[in-house]
Write a structure and sequence with these properties.
By secondary structure, the chain is α/β, with parallel strands linked by helices. 42% of the residues lie in helices and 13% in strands. The strands form 2 sheets. Strands 4-5-6-3-7 form a 5-stranded parallel beta sheet, sandwiched between helices. A two-stranded antiparallel sheet has the order 1-2. Helix 4 crosses helix 5 and helix 6 runs antiparallel to helix 7. It is globular, with a radius of gyration of 20 Å. The N terminus and C terminus are likely disordered.
Amino acid sequence: MEPLKTHIGRHHKTQTPTENSTPPTRAQLPGGGRNWKKDECPQCLGAGWVYNRHIYDAIWAGSGPYNLTSALEPCNVCADQKQVPYLFKQSALVGQNRQASFEDVSPLHDPSIITALKQSIEQGGFVSLIGNPGSGKTYLLAAAVSYAIETYWKRSVFTSTPTLLDHLRSTYRNQDRYSFDDYWDNIEHADVLALDEFDESSGTDWANEQILKLVDDRYNRWQECCTIFGIKDFDKLTASVKSRLKDFNFTIVLMQGDDLRLVNRKDWE
């Protein structure tokens, strides 16, 4: 998964702030008047994103967010011609999960679940989908990510907790601190994060520490981001994590009923 700042960096070379350096001029920023190639957007030069000047200046002044990606916003010229395909590429939605949509959700699901997910995507918050295998948790998580990208152009990520931890372990053991920080940054600061199999971490102290760190950060910013959890056994979570997920501001959905995979199979047998 290519980091957003790497994608932008391939199109625009900007200075790195130092103690004695000065912010780049408007012409040095994406869409700032550089020469552009034929069939390339003149505003963003093909990147699909531009820097919000006010946020970018705040970063240079030391009063804004430390993350440069926070200063990025969709280009208002080439619209979703660039943003939507790029966001889907970054989302990690592959295979049948890429085809998930709220419009195709099983009629066995309560419509209020879709309403709660859409509201959380728009306004921020936590939504915990709790149910047995086959209850439709994964499909709803994938559909929520697709909806966030197509409707709001939000930076969204779909992953399972075991996959997330495996990736973190791999980069950490290889002492690739840059890749570790970059991957963690993409997960931690996603506008919409869908975490499947959330109760399936290894249970080690290191894994519990990483999960609590992630939940804590997004809990403290819950009005700015949406986090959706797919959970089979709520009791397997640590007490600290359960306490945050049960906050009265958030939604917990108990998904009961037959295994939808078996139900769908009966339709064509």
